[in-house]
Q: What sequence folds into this?
């Protein structure tokens, strides 16, 4: 266990997330942790693109939103059970990502980033005009949708546990990829794509794979999240601001590391939550968050994990 | 038939303003490879500047234009030193985040000060009427001023020493530094210029439409599209790109439900990035 | 390990950051959009709540269960976002132990809040939300103060029909849940009344320039325009219609013209009508609580600005809740809900009666909208009520 402590770390943390609110029957903590977990999922999977392959996916929220729509639609209109619907969302988005990837992954740097914004906004507008998915009004889940899971109260706990599972899966995925030949290839692409190609790394294939893979778990999470929220509409599903916040989380924690994005997501979300509910700050929470971000970008670009690694080099071995 | 022509002309007029708005964004990118995510809120600051100058101080609306350009430049230089200077040369992601942070701070302050209420500056100029359709005076004036400012920018970039320095730094910073150009100061100036352009476009927009603190978001997205159409880093292209976008909006409106137009815009955007990465106007240069 | 400790420390911090409150007060919880695009109207609504609370507490509190209950608010900023609404309402209920809830502002946020409030069986008075779908999902404890979306343009259509039954109508509305619901209802009404729609289109929420759409309106030779959406686009549409001399004889826009700020449009505002949940000039005779005039004066004195219907809705929500508690003689949710279900009263806001049909519980069925129009009076721009005839203060300008 001490040789490869990392996977155990993930399992313990996930268990803590799951069990602490459960045994305390602390709904409020559960709500906060759920939001934090969602952000961890978004950030971790985004890190596959940004931290490993070096491609900045600005429109990453489109995976989350589309997955949400597919799942909620299947549950609401076709009475599918939650888990298959969420998985269906994940598969749909992954396949779509593969197709889109063919087009935009040949772009580099800022061009790619801008293209992802374009894709995200275009899909948002398409969905807004798409009547079977409620158009601009969106889909409202009737309270009966929760009965197969034992009623709204029980359903919320179940959804929470499923989200924790997806979060653990995201972290394991990051870990598994990093320690594989695929991951090595991605990191090479991130360092210098042309050199990597010359050395025999199948860059187009790898890029498409990572783009598609990085969309699967966020899409599933989107399905679970919007099921819990009870309503999905284009503005909240394809919120570009959230996309950028996910990038912030990856940077805050430390891009390219496995645990970094997770820490970044957790810290960022908790910080915003605190600022939001503290009386004196609420008018200025956006300002404070912005200043904090600026300080981090300017003085600690390796993120929190980077700081820890520099200060205590021994952590490099087990805090990946 | 007539309605199409009217819409097209309207589109071109507003397109000139879109172009002006995008010029600042593309200039900053071209010179220092920074994507300014605070672009939208700066446009909004330009709008509020008009409001306070015109209604608060009683300045004639178009008189605010030079004032805003000056103030915008100063703000831009300040922002450069605060947020951008340390991250020049680092991966693009860093500048994205730094400018995003600036955006958060400014939007937060703006909301705290002005809430999200709509503000309006009533400006009326005689328009030009043709059959049933009117081209408002403010639209015409804004388009005219946009073209004039674009022209001034061109003169600055190609016929002054500062402009030459800016182009040199944009081309190759190290070489410019070696030739004795104080690159850091030029970068600050370029950033200031970009911000000034964004701000003044906001001022012109405010002469035509009411606005809120959040109005900048839509214009920022449009600026991205225009910048790509015209070619990243190419200010002249930005103006043409803006007009092209306005043209598309005007041309499409009579033929389809208006809510489909953003889909076309973004579709075009992505297509352009893939097929014409240097912008549609760079074809002749290639 | 480090991360778990970090997490627990932060969680403890989060829990510890709760403000302390008086224990025997009646706690009412809600969120306000202090930031984000709903900020303007949400704050107006909050001021309505606050004025009510101040008046109630000045009079000693709400009488129920043999004691005087002072009213205490617990509120947070929901950033105009659904995710926050759910997180915060859960906090209000589970941690702050709010006994009753007011809704956030806007139909979308209210739908999210409703899911949480329904789970915990908490009574929520919803205001600032006209979307009807929320009440059709099987709720038991929601009570809507506003007239539902379907009603919004009904009055405008009737008024228009009275002036010109053959009017060609252009329908131009924002692509968002509220405006679409309104549009749907009016489309059906127009068809039923035999009125012609010359144009029927929605525009996306991010639209900045209405020039091309207006050209389309002109091309359709419409006499009247109904639609709009929220503030920014309504104001822009009005201004451009004027600048482009669209020549319409009748323009009714949603929401935007209701704000006093609309007067800054000058000439562009004249003649524009707006369906309103309430106007300061209405002359309802309240069964309890202040008259519209008294409310308007108290509000203007306290906040230095005239109240619009968002504020009035907030105030009415408080009044209704107070009355229900007094009628029930207790603060038990079940009993208060029963009192609300039975209610059929008139306040400064108008008549209030909730539907008790299970499939649309809580829908407001007693309240009627009024139509207000901007007119020039002695050289100044004022809003006059022009419809229904029973409540009007001036004649229609066509």
A:
């Amino acid at each position: 266990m001490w040789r490869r402590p990392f996977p155990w770390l993930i399992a313990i943390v996930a268990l803590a997330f799951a069990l602490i609110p459960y045994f305390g029957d602390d709904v409020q903590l559960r709500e906060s942790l759920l939001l934090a977990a969602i952000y961890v999922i978004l950030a971790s999977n985004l890190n596959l693109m940004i931290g490993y392959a070096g491609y900045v996916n600005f429109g990453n929220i489109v995976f989350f939103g589309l997955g949400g729509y597919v799942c909620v639609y299947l549950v609401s209109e076709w009475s599918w059970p939650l888990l298959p619907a969420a998985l269906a969302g994940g598969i749909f988005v992954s396949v779509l990502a593969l197709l889109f990837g063919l087009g935009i992954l040949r772009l580099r740097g800022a061009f790619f980033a801008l293209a992802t914004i374009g894709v995200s906004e275009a899909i948002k507008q398409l969905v807004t005009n798409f009547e079977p998915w409620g158009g601009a009004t969106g889909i409202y889940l009737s309270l009966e949708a929760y009965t197969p899971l034992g009623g709204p109260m029980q359903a919320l706990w179940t959804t929470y546990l499923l989200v924790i599972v997806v979060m653990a899966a995201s972290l394991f995925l990051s870990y598994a990829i990093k320690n594989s030949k695929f991951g090595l290839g991605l990191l090479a692409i991130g360092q210098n794509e042309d050199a990597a190609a010359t050395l025999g790394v199948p860059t187009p294939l790898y890029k498409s794979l990572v783009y598609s893979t990085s969309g699967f778990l966020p899409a599933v999470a989107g399905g679970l999240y919007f099921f819990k929220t009870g309503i999905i509409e284009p503005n909240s599903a394809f919120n570009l601001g959230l996309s950028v916040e996910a990038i912030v989380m990856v940077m805050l924690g430390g891009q390219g590391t496995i645990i970094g994005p997770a820490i970044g997501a957790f810290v960022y979300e908790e910080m915003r939550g605190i600022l939001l509910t503290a009386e004196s700050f609420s008018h200025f929470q956006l300002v404070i968050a912005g200043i904090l971000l600026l300080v981090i970008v300017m003085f600690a670009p390796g993120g929190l994990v980077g700081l820890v690694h520099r200060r205590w080099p021994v952590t490099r071995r087990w805090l990946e | 038939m007539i309605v199409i022509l009217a819409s097209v002309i309207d589109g071109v007029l507003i397109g000139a303003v879109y172009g002006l708005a995008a010029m600042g964004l593309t200039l900053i990118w071209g010179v220092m490879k920074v994507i300014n995510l605070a672009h939208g809120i700066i446009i909004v600051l330009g709008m509020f500047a008009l409001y306070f100058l015109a209604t608060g101080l009683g300045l004639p609306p178009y008189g605010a234009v030079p004032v805003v350009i000056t103030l915008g430049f100063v703000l831009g230089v300040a922002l450069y030193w605060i947020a951008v200077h340390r991250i020049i040369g680092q991966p693009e992601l860093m500048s994205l985040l730094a400018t995003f942070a600036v955006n958060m701070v400014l939007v937060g302050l703006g909301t705290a000060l002005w809430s999200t209420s709509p503000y309006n500056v009533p400006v009326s100029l005689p328009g030009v009427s043709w059959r049933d359709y009117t081209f408002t005076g403010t639209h015409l004036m804004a388009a005219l001023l946009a073209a004039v400012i674009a022209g001034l920018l061109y003169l600055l970039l190609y016929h002054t020493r500062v402009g030459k320095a800016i182009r040199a730094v944009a081309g190759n910073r190290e070489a410019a530094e070696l030739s004795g150009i104080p690159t850091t100061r030029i970068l600050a100036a370029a950033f200031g210029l970009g911000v000034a352009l964004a701000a003044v476009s906001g001022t012109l927009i405010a002469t035509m439409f009411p606005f809120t603190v959040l109005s900048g978001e839509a214009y920022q997205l449009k600026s991205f599209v225009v910048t790509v159409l015209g070619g990243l880093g190419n200010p002249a292209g930005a103006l043409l790109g803006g007009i092209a976008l306005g043209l598309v909006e005007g041309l499409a409106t009579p033929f389809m439900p208006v809510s489909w137009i953003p889909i076309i815009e973004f579709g075009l955007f992505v297509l352009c990035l893939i097929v014409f990465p240097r912008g549609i106007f760079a074809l002749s240069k290639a | 390990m480090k991360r778990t400790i970090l997490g627990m420390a932060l969680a403890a911090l989060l829990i510890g950051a709760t403000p302390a409150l008086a224990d025997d007060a009646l706690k009412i919880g809600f969120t306000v959009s202090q930031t984000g695009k709903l900020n303007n109207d949400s704050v107006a609504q909050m001021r309505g709540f606050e004025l009510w609370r101040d008046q109630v507490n000045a009079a000693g509190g709400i009488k129920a269960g043999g004691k005087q209950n002072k009213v205490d608010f617990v509120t947070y900023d929901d950033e105009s976002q659904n995710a926050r609404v759910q997180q915060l309402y859960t906090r209000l209920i589970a941690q702050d132990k709010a006994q009753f809830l007011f809704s956030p502002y806007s139909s979308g946020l209210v739908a999210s809040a409703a899911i949480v409030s329904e789970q915990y069986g908490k009574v929520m008075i919803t205001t600032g939300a006209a979307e009807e779908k929320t009440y059709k999902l099987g709720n038991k404890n929601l009570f809507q103060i506003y007239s539902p979306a379907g009603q919004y343009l009904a009055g405008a259509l009737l008024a228009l029909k009275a002036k010109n039954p053959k009017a060609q109508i252009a329908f131009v509305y924002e692509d968002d849940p509220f405006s679409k619901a309104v549009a749907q209802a009016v489309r059906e009404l127009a068809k039923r009344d035999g009125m012609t729609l010359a144009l029927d289109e929605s525009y996306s929420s991010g639209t900045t320039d209405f020039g091309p759409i207006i050209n389309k309106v002109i091309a359709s030779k419409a006499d009247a325009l109904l639609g709009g959406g929220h503030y920014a686009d309504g104001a822009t549409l009005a201004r451009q219609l004027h600048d482009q001399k669209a020549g319409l004889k009748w323009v009714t826009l949603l929401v935007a013209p209701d704000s006093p700020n609309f007067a800054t449009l000058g000439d562009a505002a004249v003649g524009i009508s707006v369906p309103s949940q309430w106007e300061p000039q209405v002359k309802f005779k309240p069964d309890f609580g202040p008259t519209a005039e008294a409310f308007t004066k108290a509000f203007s004195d306290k906040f230095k600005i005239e109240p619009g219907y968002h504020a009035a809705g907030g105030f009415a929500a408080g009044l209704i809740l107070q009355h229900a508690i007094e009628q029930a003689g207790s603060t038990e949710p079940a009993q208060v809900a029963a009192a609300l279900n039975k209610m059929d009263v008139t306040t400064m806001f108008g008549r209030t009666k909730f539907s008790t049909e299970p499939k649309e519980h809580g829908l407001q069925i007693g309240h009627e909208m009024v139509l207000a129009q901007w007119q020039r009076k002695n050289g100044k721009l004022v809003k006059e009520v022009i419809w229904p005839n029973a409540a009007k203060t001036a004649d229609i300008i066509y």
About this structure: The mean pLDDT of chain A is 85. Chain A touches chain C through 54 residues (CB under 8 Å). The radius of gyration of chain A is 19 Å.
